[in-house]
Amino acid sequence: MFAPGRVLLWAGEPAETVFRIVSGFVRLERYLPDGRRLVASFPGAGDTIGLCAPDVYRFTAVALTRVLVQRTTRRAFFAAARTPEARADLIDRLAAESCALNEELLVLLHERAEQRLAHFLLSLAERAFRPIPAEPVVHLPMSRADIADHLGLTVETVCRSLSRMRAQGVVAVPDPSRIVIRRPQLLRALCRESPGESAGAER
Amino acid sequence: MFAPGRVLLWAGEPAETVFRIVSGFVRLERYLPDGRRLVASFPGAGDTIGLCAPDVYRFTAVALTRVLVQRTTRRAFFAAARTPEARADLIDRLAAESCALNEELLVLLHERAEQRLAHFLLSLAERAFRPIPAEPVVHLPMSRADIADHLGLTVETVCRSLSRMRAQGVVAVPDPSRIVIRRPQLLRALCRESPGESAGAER
DNA sequence: CGATGCGTTGACATGCCTCAACCTGAGTGG
DNA sequence: CCACTCAGGTTGAGGCATGTCAACGCATCG
Lengths: 203, 203
What we know:
DNA-binding; alpha+beta; 4-stranded antiparallel β-sheet; homodimer
């Protein structure tokens, strides 16, 4: 059990323990020598952290909310896959996970601010709801700064992009940590938009 | 054996075969619905492609040079890891590989054009030489457009950034497909630079 | 010789970053 | 209860970097 703001594990420490998040949200981050912060991802309930590191943890894990975890030693985690099927399944899951992360980063790299944010909101919504309802209310456990450092933007740009979406009627922001996606289709359209074109009417 | 420009495998095809590159360079790419192209990576000799896809290939693989490959079925590839040690080793290699890719993308996402290019050139140099000599001559098997689509930039920006580096004496460009890194230390410094500051003198 | 593809450079527009100010809500102490 | 502080969020003004559009050089190929 970790309170908001507490550190689950530090980047650079020997990676002996694997954490499985039971409930709550976590922020994976690392600082560059010049002081900039990279936020890798925001794992939540069901996600496993501390895996992708053969020797030491790559990122510091900070609790965003109250977080409940299950701990396993790294060795025990892999030993659990005894049968060939379980092994193949484990490998497949690992591969799929890293694949998804690569996809996400690769797409983000080529997108503009508003598209990055749209992409981010959709991925949050898809994690919380499946399928996505008509007007999903997405809870944002992370600050604007966290989002900015995750998307490679500044806080101001994140705010402005959000405001623009609000002005277009795509989302509503009842309070800073909650976002209502009022037009999921339009949000999806924002993701697909080329850098050149501006938003056309939809629906 | 594939000639330059030939396709080794298509994104979307069932991923039955795993390719190990014996010699040459390959470009992994995919097109977005709007026509933009994402270039995921440029695997070379020793790299394995077609792995990260449980069901279908994620990226089309195009030969940049003459390419020699070894083919294995996906099943045979995983069956090769019989002993627990071999299995752990395989998992570790997969994890390390995807980790490195994530790192790269994550860093690129937060960097400006010139830093991205510096990063890219260094990674190419480190692949070719180990350790890096005083003035390494890096061969670029890919076009400027390939680099641009890999780094999330435009061809013009790649050219301009290169020209600026040339003007600063960091690199020399005897011909478009060859780059001499004349000041590796300065190139490294460029990578570490914060977006705000400009290049100070070094050495 | 012209056609073509790639690389490079220039002029201009625009998106994002920087710096600054202001607002709000939560916490704190009077 | 209010005044105050503080952190986070939002908005505005201005500058810089990058995208866009265009032109040109150069090599290759027919």
